[in-house]
Amino acid sequence: MDASTLNALTELIVGDALGQVPLGVAALVGVLMLGTAVWTAHRPDTVRAVAFLACAVVWARADQGLEGAVLVALSPEHGLTLADLLPPALLALVLARRAELARRPGLPAVTPEGRASR
């Protein structure tokens, strides 16, 4: 990997490269994250969970236009906002639904193809 590629990756991951996305794109990422969370909660499997986690990671970097007020200040430049709490809340929803499906033996199991089986 050459130096320019490494610098670009560092800027994307550490810097504010995704923080400069237009507001509409950030909103689209948020809608995709909500949709994949509901999709994963409805029929949990690995592919859906990876899709949700990918959207959550992108959201964590691209939500700067939608963050709102700082709830907890971590430093003068960094803090916890309401938009930062959305992925953990959705993850809790997915995990609670997964636990409910595992606890209730009367519900049909979902095969990797997405079909219900008994």
Structural account:
The chain has 118 residues and is mainly α. The chain has one domain (22-105). Helices cover 56% and strands 9% of the residues. The chain contains 4 helices and 4 strands. The strands form 2 sheets. Strands 1-2 form a two-stranded antiparallel sheet. It has a two-stranded antiparallel ribbon with strand order 3-4. Strand 3 and strand 4 (116-117) form a beta hairpin. The protein is globular. The model has no long low-confidence stretch (mean pLDDT 80).
What are its keywords?
single chain; two-stranded antiparallel ribbon
SSE layout and pairing:
Blueprint: H1 3-13, H2 23-42, H3 46-62, E1 70-73, E2 79-81, H4 86-103, E3 109-110, E4 116-117
Antiparallel strand pairs: 1-2, 3-4
Helix pairs in contact: 2-3, 2-4
Order of helices and strands: HHHEEHEE
Query: How much is the radius of gyration in Å?
Result: 18 Å
State the helix count. Answer: 4
Largest sheet: 2 strands, antiparallel
Strand segment tally: 4
Portion in helices: 55-70%
State the end-to-end CA separation: 49 Å
Quaternary structure of the protein = single chain
Uncertain ranges: none
Biggest sheet, strands in spatial order? 1-2
Coarse structural class: mainly alpha
Question: Per the principal axes of the C-alpha atoms, what is the gross shape?
Answer: globular
The overall average pLDDT, rounded, is 80
Question: What's the structural domain tally?
Answer: 1
Strand fraction equals 5-15%
